[in-house]
């Protein structure tokens, strides 16, 4: 089945908190990373607030901010974070959001292109995809280093559009659980910029960032993008 002109031709999905359950794994990994690096300079409480506020953004960019622009310190912290997160994933603490895999499969069957995007590095993203058996689930997976900049910049969305041959940003839908996901979608010009309540930010935060729709879960996108035909009376 081909997608009619004027409807969504590409959906860009966030990963952690949107299609992949987070359940505090990012914060756990960050705390473990601080323990490994042994930083006495970073205020942990303030750092955790910043990590929560910037969920969805490129992790190395977050660590550069926390390290006060010290690139070597940022890379040490980022490396420790990635190792800690991968240990948690390998321990089986990584699970899909209910309905996410089924939705992506249905969209592809309907001719809609799909991309999984994340603020993690390629190594961490691949660890998650392998743990879930999702290496071939979407048409494309992207991390910030492959697109230029991470969220809230529009680069991940626009790179997906270019690589998947979609010719108009008005045929793009984005979905994520954070304000930075929403900002990236709005800046990219996507027609539908959906926020979901399964991750870091609440409905008010998502609406304030400019979400066109706030959904309980990513699975609720199906009613927007793949409406069932109403039989004629």
UniProtKB/TrEMBL annotation:
InterPro entries documented for this protein: HAD-like_hydrolase_sf, HAD-like_sf, HAD-SF_hydro_IA, HAD_sf, PhnX-like
Pfam family, one: Hydrolase
Any single biological process term in GO: DNA repair
Keywords (A to Z) from UniProt: Hydrolase
Annotated Gene Ontology cellular component terms: cytosol
GO molecular function, one term: phosphoglycolate phosphatase activity
Protein name, entry field: HAD-superfamily hydrolase, subfamily IA, variant 3
